[in-house]
Amino acid sequence: MKNKILSRTTVLMLSLVLLSCSDYGQIVKGDNYEAKLLKAETLYEKESYPRALTLYEQVYQRYPRTEDGQLAYYKMGMTYYKMRDFIMAGYYLNNFVTRFPYSARAEECLFLSAMCSVKLSPDASLDQEDTEIAINDLQTFIDRYPESNLVDSCNTLMDGLRFKLEKKDYEAVILYHNMENYKAAKTSATIFMENFPQSTFNEEVAYLRIYNAFTLATKSIFTKKKARFQEVIKFCDLFEAKYEGSSYAKKVNKMKENSKEELLKVSETYQFRELLATYQLSETNSKAKKIIYLKETIEKHRNFVAEFPDSEFLKRANDIKDKAEKDLQKLQ
Description:
The protein is mostly helical. It has 3 domains: 21-83, no CATH class; 86-169, no CATH class; 179-331, Serine Threonine Protein Phosphatase 5, Tetratricopeptide repeat (Alpha Horseshoe). It is 81% helix and 0% strand. The chain has 14 helices and no strands. Helix 5 runs antiparallel to helix 6 and helix 10 packs parallel to helix 12. The radius of gyration is 38 Å and the shape is rod-shaped.
């Protein structure tokens, strides 16, 4: 008996479903657009979104400039939003504002359109183009509706999105640092501090900029060492002025002192090479030019010895000076 009752109940439910489907199919195929909209609203309330969407589309296509058409277009955007298809929802909700700018629903649609962009914003480890779009969309809403009670929500959302951009760029600095790509780490650290001057990561990033700039300078060819060690010292000065008492202070000071020592070595080598190059220029057929270069060689030797009395190049520098003096005596 119980099985018979269950069987009858099942048959009744199936019959209702079939009748409902048949009713829906007739409305979709029919020309009664009032019935289409009423059925769409019923299906929307029952969360039968794909079937409701079909009917809303028919109503809008038939009456795009009427109140019913406006309602249908609004519900198309909302239906996609409920279905979590944020690309299509964003398209329709944003277009609603363009098509019906004076509608009472325009504010809600523009906000939800921005929310679609927020929903599409990916994790910080991924490309952040959609995050930047979301920030711009929220700002557009604030600019258009500055008195809206949703402005505070927009600002909170924008803070979260900006932090995502901040974290993305911070992780890029760490990645380049770990990869020992010193130049990229230094550059990305500088860009990070320019873009996020109030970031809580800035002290660490500033230290990493110094570390990678110092390592890059150390490994550079001779012609680039001077400028790069000067840059390290500049970075150190900026760090010390801003982060007094930092846990990185000793390391920063050591790199600064080492950079100064390296600059002295570079200057010593550079001046010796200039001395040698000037003497080599004296090997010319012009007697007048030869005299000029020989005198310059002797003068540069005098300056070199005065600045670097204990130089490892001192013997070679003295030999060059002696040759210059002998050559000059022969010409005078």
